[in-house]
Amino acid sequence: MLGVLVGIEARTSWLQSWVFAAVARRMTFGFDDVPGAATRYPGGGPYDLRLGYAHLPGYLERLAPDFAITRQARLSPAHRWLVDLGIFPIYHEKTQAGLRVLDRHGRELFAVDYPQRVYETFASIPPLVVRTLLFIENRELLDETHPRRNPAVEWDRLARALLEKGVEPLRPSRRVPGGSTLATQLEKLRHSPGGRTESAREKLRQMLSASLRAYQSGEETIDARREIFREYANSLPLAATPGFGEVHGVGDGLWAWFGTDLAEATRLLAAEPQGEHDPELDARARAFREVLALCLAQRRPAYYLQREPAALEELSQRYLRMLHDEHVLPDELYERARTLGVPLRDRAPDAAPLRLVWKPIQGVRTRLASTLGTSGLYELDRLDLSARTTFDRDVQLAVLGALHELRDPSVARAAGLVGSHLLGTGDPSRVVYSFTLYERVGDANVLRVQADTYEQPLNLNEGVKLELGSTAKLRTLVTYLEIVAALHAQYASAPSAALLELERELPRSDRLARWAVEHLASATDRGLPRMLEAAMERRYSAHPGEAFFTGGGRHVFSNFDSRENGRAPTVREAFRESINLPFVRLMRDIVSYYTLRVPGSSGRILEDASDPRRQHYLERFADREGREFLRRFYRQHHGQNAEEGLSAVLAEIGPAPRRIAALVRSARPELDYDAFATIVRERGRDSHVLDSTLRELYESLGPGRYGLADRGYLAGIHPLRLWLLEYLGQHPDATFDEVVRESAGQRQAVYGWLFSTRRKNAQDKRIRTLLEVEAFLEIHADWKRLGYPFESLVPSYASAIGSSGDRPAALAELVGIVLAGGVRYRTARIDELLFAEGTPYETALARTDRPGERVLPAAVAAQVRRELLGTVEEGTARRLRGAVVLHDGTPLAIGGKTGTGDNRREIFGAHGQLVESRAVNRTATFVFFLGDRFFGTITSYVPGPQADEYRFTSSLSLQVLRHLLPDLMPLLDAPDPRTGNLTVS
Description:
The chain is α+β, with helices and mostly antiparallel strands and 985 residues long. α6 (127-137) packs parallel to α13 (281-297), α26 packs across α36 and α29 crosses α30 (673-683). The longest helix is centred in the last third of the chain and has 26 residues, at 760-785.
């Protein structure tokens, strides 16, 4: 009787269905508002790794500084107990999953699913495919005779496999057949480490997990068995192919390995055969051969699909005969299929291009990949993850569409882009536009819109260095007012008599300090706001007749409008009207200020060369300041190889061949002449430099020809940076302590030439160059604190008018700081993350509150804001005055700064005459704020020599912004998410 009962149970699974269904009903999961110990994460199964479930603890740890868990799945006690015993978590697993990026309202911006091509239902799978795969793998799976049957085990197959395993030692060359059903294979492929069965214990775990999963919807398993078949067909591991990556499932396998569309193959194989005269017989036979090859290849996918496709062909022919003999395959289809070859592709067909809004989404994906620590976008896109971003999809698409339409001449003309200082006769289709808009919400500046019309993947707002002209005056003005605030803090409490005495002691070159002392000594209101206002009323000459010694040489500058040449405008007027020469002179005063205040500075040496303390002072300066500058340079270059370090500096020093040659011969003295010449020609952007000239430079600048200080002077960079490049090139793993120890002599050598008193004028010239470099390191630190994106500034007064370059997004961040009263808030693109939705690993996170960092005195920020408003009301941005009126009739306050970059490569003759002037690119930028919540940038850009055909100024970008304002109104006219009220101050 026991044997009879066992036999009945083996056929019907009546007892198993009752037990497993009862247990499965208790294997549930719910949710906690806070993380707890009830969460269990999976091991190293391929499915769990690919979807990110196994990596979730690491992801959550990486996200912790910026995101907090708001909801997390928890297993029921029974579920948790069984998982702790080794059972895989039981839930309805996803056939497809992938990254989803949503806008602020939850509307889809980007979505990918892997596998990409699947059978959506069991009914959609052609019966011929079902019969074929069942014949190969699990012939009894869909037998409906016993509706409660456990699909996880076929007792006869299991017994045969165990018997074969028992005699394996006696017949080691015999291949042991497996006893796995599709249900246990699915568990293995998804959840077993490496997708393999390494032990009997692992096989038992697969069988028990598959059994519980089969009964999770009840005691009858017909529907579950069909779903097992569908999921198995959609999950076959089919190796990896170039252009696609890992391949899973019949649908993706057909596309990746054969270039066949799943829908077309399904249509062909689902149709009723029409005999040997069937017009689509060849296509049907080919589709069947491809499906058969994939079903067989999953046994050893890398072997059959990558290494030995001939073996796959042989195996396919064998199974064709068996399928025909077993009446699975019709005669005419068999005859045609066995004569066809189905060669595998070397790589998958090209993927469809991403949609129009992809650039800002690319930024989100890149940042997510970096934050989570994934190996790249490939791995990120396969995670079961949704990200709700800060973007507004409707406004994003409207802005992007409007910018693209401006390339049409008729649209450009209707938008008012043709005229003086606008497009003129230039081709509108060649102009690239970029736009960025942020909104301050709580503790973050959230990115609402980011769009550009550049046809390449590069993001113009964040990914390039552009010379944006007079927008640099904004950074210069902020630095100037910060200095005024620092001088106020230093001197405001001193009596007037003491200030007058101090004024007589201050060096003549310390013009800012002398003005501050004079102002405070005579002011009735010594408050900082009054002093800042007075600082804006200081006057500077706009005359271009003066030559400036800066950047290691003599330079002259001009104003955009020659009618300004005879004026001496106030700082306010120069800022609002974007006059160059006053800002060049203002930058000179800033450099002088820092020259005299760098800790241990040698700036006062210029005032009194006979000071008896000069020698000791210079030695102390050489050692202490040399160490400090080495520390800064070490931070920049540590971790770079010799080529990377050299490239980083070459990008800063400009195209002058002598400078490049001096740098290359000092930093890479081991290079032979050919390598040296190649670098000079490429970096100098002039392939026609005479060979004789290069050979002369190679020889004259070789090792030992000049001292370290002279080589730094010739290269236009700090000599210690030059030495460090060479040293790290030879000792890439050197610590900073080792660098300090090895540089003791070099630190003295760099400044040693100052010790001699002969030729004082030449010394002073060198001193000024060196002091200017050191001053710009301090200025760069100030700019960097306020979001400047690059690791150095060009040590020249020309940085005040744009020569150091910038990024539109970084300029927007600076305006955001000003708008926030001097507080720097983090930039946010993602509000919420949801991992593994609908699974026992589901975890929801929301962006955490983080207080901003004060980086600018509030009074300075308020003064700068007033000046930005003045630029729109009375200055170069008057085109936007009164341009935004809200629905209630209230005008929205607009402020900003314009900038035009006419970036050219100019060649001068021996007597200073201009020989050649060639356009590199042209830019026109407006960095702005709208009300007290929104800020951003708009840039017009023409790259390459074709920029010579355009004469537009920042007026073009102003007009483009005016054209975009109607598309922005849904944001501008919406209530403040912080208060629910409109804020328009």
